[in-house]
Design brief:
Layout: E1 3-4, H1 13-33, H2 38-55, H3 61-95, H4 98-109, H5 113-131, H6 136-147, H7 152-162, H8 170-183, H9 187-194, H10 198-214, H11 216-221, H12 223-243, H13 249-267, H14 293-314, H15 316-325, E2 328-331, E3 339-340, E4 350-353, H16 359-370, H17 378-391, H18 393-412, H19 414-423, H20 429-444, H21 447-465, H22 469-481, H23 488-497, H24 504-531, H25 557-568
Parallel strand pairs: 1-3
Antiparallel strand pairs: 2-4
Length: about 575
C-alpha cells in the first residue's frame, strides 16, 4: 500500500503551512541573522525538516531517513560532480599559467571592472547556462572574476545575480521542456510566454548589476555598454524563444551579447577606467605583451573544448546513446514506491547514475583533453583534481544537506502544503504564482525541479479562477529564476568558486534583497498579463482539460481541488 501523504496534518491548512515553512524560515534566520556557516545551517535545516516530517507529518522514520539519503545522493551526483569538474578545469588553466594570458587579453579589451562584469558574469555566464546549466556558469564565471582580481564576495554575489536572466532556458531549454511535459501545455507556448516576461529583466539586469557594484554615477558612465549588453541579449532572448523554441535562447543571446559589446568597445570606451576602491592598479595591468593567435587559442582551448563537448552532450540522440551504455538506475531499497500521494499515486524513488551523459562528465573530459594544450602532465592534473576535492569538502557537505532537506520536504508533503496554501489565495493567485516558482528553486536549487514540482498546481489553480494557465505556468519558470541567487545550493557553489567556504551567510545577505526586488517586478508583470494585457499570452494548441492531467511529483489535482474548495469558501 505505501505510506499515505497528508498535506494538512494539523487539520487546518494555515497551521500546517506554518509548520512546513519552519525549515525555510530557519535557514533564512541562520544565514541572515545568525550569520552561520553554510554547511552548519544546511545540516541543521535538514535535521529540522527530518523532525517535522516524523513528528508533525507522521512520516515513518525509515522513509524520512531514506528520503534524506536519496537527496544527498542527488547532491553528490550530478550537482557536486558538475562543481568538482568545472572547478578542476578552471584550476588546471590557472595552475598552468595560461590564465595569465586570458587575464592580459581581457585587460587589453578592457581593464574596467564594470565592463568585465558585463562580458564575463552576464554574457559568458548566460552562454554557459544555456549549454551546461546547473552549477557550471556560477562556478566558472565567479572563479574567473576572482582570478582577475575581483573581491571574492562581489565575484560570487554578482555572478549569482547575473545567473538570473538565462535560467529558465538553461541546459538547452530543460526547465521549459519539463514544465511542458508535466503541465501538458505546449513547449512553444510556454517558451513564448516566458520570452515575453524575462527579456525585460534581461534588459535591466546589466545596468542593475553595474549600479550595484559601482554606484549610480559610475553606472551612467558606461550606459552605452549596459544598453548594448542588455538590449542585444533581451532582443535575441525574445526572438529565439518566440520563433525558435526553448532550446537556444541562452546560447544565441549570450553569444550575441558578447559580440555586440566587443563591437561597441572597438569604437567607444568609458571616460575613465573604474576599479574597486583601494584596489592596486598594478593588480590588473593593461597587457604590454602582444600574444600570437596560437598563444591565445592555447589559453582558451579548454573553454573551446568545453563548449563543443557540452553542446554535443546536450543533443538528445547523443545523450540517449551515452545512456544506453553508461547509465545505472537504482531503485532506492525501502523507499521506491513506498510513499503514496494524496491523489493515490505511488512515488518512484530512483537514483539515475548517468555517468557518461552527465554534464559534469563532459566538463571533466574537456579538462583532460585540454591538459596537453596547457603543457601539463596528467600526473600534475590529477594532483590538481585531488586538491580541488579538498577545496570543496564543505561545499559538498552543504549541497548534500540541502538536497537531503529538499527530498524530505517533497516526500513528506511539506512542499505540497506550502503550494496548496498559496493556491488558496484565489484571484490574487497570479501575484503569488511567481512566488511558488521562487520557493521551489530556493528549496531545490533548480528551476527544472521547481517546475516538476509545481506547474501542475499552477495549471489547476489558474483554470479554477478563470486565468489563462499559460500565464501562471510560465510564471513558475520566470519566478523561479530569481530564487536561484539565494538557493543554499547555489550559494555553496558560488562560495566554493570564490574561496569563501564558511562565509555563505555573507553571500546570502548580499543577494537576498535583490532576489525580492526582482521577484516583486515579476509578480507585478504576471498580474498585468493575467488581468490587463490578456492578449500577450499565446494560444496553446495542446490545451486539454485539467481532469486529464496525471499526478506529478506529489502535487495532485485532487489536492488542489480540495483546498481550493476550502479556501474559496473563505473569499
Amino acid at each position: 500500500m505505501g505510506w499515505l501523504q497528508n498535506i494538512d496534518p494539523l487539520h487546518k491548512l494555515a497551521f500546517s503551512a506554518i509548520a512546513a515553512a519552519i525549515p525555510v524560515v530557519f535557514i533564512f534566520w541562520a544565514l541572515i541573522i545568525r550569520k552561520m556557516a553554510g554547511w552548519k545551517a544546511s545540516v541543521l535545516t535538514a535535521l529540522i525538516a527530518l523532525i517535522l516530517a516524523i513528528i508533525v507529518y507522521r512520516m515513518p522514520v525509515k522513509l524520512a531517513l531514506l528520503s534524506g539519503f536519496h537527496g544527498a545522493l542527488y547532491g553528490l551526483f550530478p550537482i557536486c560532480w558538475i562543481i568538482i569538474t568545472a572547478l578542476f578545469l578552471f584550476n588546471v588553466i590557472v595552475r598552468s599559467g595560461q590564465f595569465e594570458v586570458i587575464k592580459n587579453c581581457m585587460a587589453s579589451i578592457t581593464a574596467d571592472r564594470r565592463l568585465q562584469i558585463l562580458l564575463i558574469a552576464f554574457s559568458f555566464g548566460a552562454f554557459l547556462e544555456g549549454t551546461a546549466g546547473f552549477a557550471t556558469p556560477v562556478v566558472i564565471t565567479a572563479a574567473m572574476l576572482f582570478s582577475l582580481g575581483f573581491d571574492p564576495l562581489y565575484a560570487a554575489g554578482i555572478c549569482l545575480i547575473a545567473n538570473t536572466a538565462p535560467v529558465a532556458f538553461g541546459s538547452i531549454g530543460i526547465p521549459i521542456i519539463v514544465a511542458s511535459h508535466v503541465s501538458g501545455i505546449g513547449e512553444m507556448a510556454l517558451s513564448q510566454m516566458v520570452g515575453r516576461t524575462l527579456p525585460l529583466i534581461s534588459f535591466l539586469l546589466p545596468f542593475y548589476m553595474v549600479t550595484l557594484t559601482a554606484g549610480w554615477r559610475k553606472s551612467i558612465e558606461v550606459l552605452p555598454a549596459t544598453l548594448v549588453s542588455g538590449g542585444s541579449f533581451a532582443f535575441f532572448q525574445w526572438f529565439c524563444s518566440n520563433y525558435m523554441g526553448p532550446l537556444l535562447p541562452d546560447i544565441i543571446a549570450g553569444i550575441a551579447s558578447i559580440v555586440c559589446l566587443l563591437l561597441l568597445l572597438r569604437w567607444w570606451k568609458p571616460a575613465s577606467v573604474w576599479r574597486f576602491g583601494g584596489e592596486v592598479a598594478a593588480g590588473l595591468p593593461v597587457a604590454a605583451t602582444v600574444y600570437s593567435g596560437g598563444q591565445i587559442a592555447r589559453a582558451l582551448s579548454p573553454f573551446i573544448i568545453l563548449t563543443l563537448l557540452v553542446i554535443t552532450w546536450g543533443i538528445q540522440p547523443v545523450k540517449d546513446a551515452l545512456n544506453s551504455i553508461g547509465e545505472i538506475q537504482l531503485n532506492i531499497p525501502g523507499l521506491h514506491n513506498q510513499i503514496r500521494t494524496y491523489g493515490g499515486s505511488l512515488l518512484p524513488q530512483t537514483f539515475h547514475f548517468n555517468y557518461l551523459s552527465a554534464s559534469g562528465t563532459a566538463i571533466f573530459l574537456a579538462a583532460l583533453i585540454g591538459v596537453p594544450f596547457m603543457r601539463m602532465t596528467y600526473r600534475e592534473a590529477m594532483g590538481i583534481f585531488f586538491d580541488t576535492l579538498r577545496q570543496l569538502i564543505y561545499p559538498i557537505i552543504t549541497i548534500g544537506a540541502v538536497m537531503g532537506f529538499t527530498y524530505i520536504s517533497n516526500n513528506s508533503g511539506m512542499s505540497s502544503t506550502l503550494a496548496a496554501a498559496l493556491a488558496g489565495t484565489g484571484v490574487l493567485f497570479p501575484f503569488f504564482s511567481p512566488l511558488l516558482g521562487w520557493l521551489g528553486v530556493f528549496i531545490t536549487g533548480s528551476d527544472t525541479s521547481s517546475n516538476a514540482l509545481f506547474v501542475q498546481i499552477q495549471r489547476a489553480t489558474a483554470t479554477a479562477i478563470g486565468v489563462n494557465p499559460v500565464v501562471t505556468v510560465a510564471a513558475n519558470c520566470s519566478g523561479g529564476v530569481v530564487g536561484k541567487m539565494i538557493s543554499p545550493s547555489s550559494i555553496a557553489v558560488a562560495a566554493a568558486a570564490g574561496g569563501l567556504s564558511g562565509s555563505e551567510s555573507r553571500i546570502f545577505r548580499f543577494t537576498v534583497r535583490h532576489s525580492f526586488i526582482l521577484l516583486a517586478i515579476i509578480c507585478c508583470l504576471v498580474v498585468l498579463q493575467a488581468y490587463v494585457f490578456k492578449g500577450i499570452a499565446p494560444a496553446d494548441p495542446n490545451a486539454r482539460p485539467v481532469s486529464s492531467y496525471p499526478g506529478k511529483a506529489g502535487v495532485e489535482r485532487e489536492i488542489i481541488e480540495q483546498y481550493l474548495r476550502v479556501d474559496n469558501s473563505r473569499h
